[in-house]
Amino acid sequence: MPELPEVEVVRRGLARWVRGRTITSVDILDPRSIRRHALGPEDFAGNLEHATVLDVVRRGKFLWMPLAMEGTPAHEPGTGVALMAHLGMSGQLLMQDPHVPDEKHLKVRLRLSEADGMPEQLRFVDQRIFGGLFVTSLVPTADGGPGGLAEAPLPEIAGEAAHIARDPLDPHFSFEDFYRKLKSRRTGLKRALLDQGIISGIGNIYADEALWRARLHYARATDTLRRADALRVVEAAREVMSDALAAGGTSFDSLYVNVNGDSGYFARSLDAYGRTGQPCRRCAEAGLAGVIKREQFMNRSSHTCPVCQPRPRNGRW
DNA sequence: AACGCGACCTGCGAGC
DNA sequence: TGCTCGCAGGTCGCGT
């Protein structure tokens, strides 16, 4: 479900509800959701109980909450601990009141210290269990911290997110760094867009949308890509994701943190993804007959208009 | 070293 | 009705 806009919606919503609150108890309903916590469920819960959430930050699709541990008065840079969350394909982080029945796929429940008018539980719900939670250490970074969208970025990052590149909405995103990495790879453009070490936050939907907007084919060889083309595809990704973020942002005031990127709200704005067999909007406007087609690529679906995104010959142009 | 595939999971709708 | 198949927005690790 979640790509960058959805994760950022969750981050913003969550920050409002949990910052400054203390975790009082932890229920692990399905240990598979914390399998990335190598030391097991007891250690996971033990680390979280009595810890206070300092903030909610993000790098790409990785989301984490730096914690102040009980009895540790000052936060020493480089010694921090955080609760890491990745939503995978179907993860949700929901703020709920205790009387709300457990969700069918509720995996982990955190009870929080009482706060005026705020829900008492943070619940991790995940159908497919590709996502998960774990406790991790923060490591120092010289690059300015997690992501520029955090209100108060700390100069440290979760180790598991250190290899993740910045996303195109991050104020510290560097087109030059992106272009350099792109040119150094021998691969297809969509594969590169989905590589979180080259550019982060883009998943299958927004990759297809960005390529459609930039009129580029997914198999275009990255090492031959001209600067203007690379710029166009990054700008397209930035635009489509910030539009989606704006749409998702409308649910900020609901009681729980909305993760429902599939609520259909932004789906209507998509031009390529999921429009198999329907006329390409750009072609229709120009009086052309392009029809969006779906192909298997990297074991997943790719949606393109064969008229305005022609397949490159020899992976070139 | 980098790439690319399979594994990790559950549930839904289509087709038989 | 009930089975099987294909499909779903992500990431990691291993083999090449």
Quickly list its features.
alpha+beta, 6-stranded antiparallel beta sheet, N-terminal domain of MutM-like DNA repair proteins, 317 residues, 25% helix, DNA-binding, 4-stranded antiparallel beta sheet, Helicase, Ruva Protein, domain 3
What does this structure look like?
It is a single chain. The protein is α+β, with helices and mostly antiparallel strands and 317 residues long. The chain folds into two domains: 4-161, N-terminal domain of MutM-like DNA repair proteins (Alpha-Beta Barrel), CATH 3.20.190.10; 175-315, Helicase, Ruva Protein, domain 3, CATH 1.10.8. It has helices at 4-18, 40-48, 175-184, 189-194, 204-214, 227-248, 281-285, and strands spanning 23-28, 52-53, 57-59, 62-68, 81-86, 91-96, 106-112, 121-126, 132-140, 156-158, 293-297, 300-304. A hairpin with an 8-residue loop joins strand 7 (106-112) and strand 8. Helix 1 (4-18) packs across helix 6 (227-248). The radius of gyration is 21 Å and the shape is elongated. 41% of the residues are buried. The structure holds a DNA duplex (16 and 16 nucleotides).
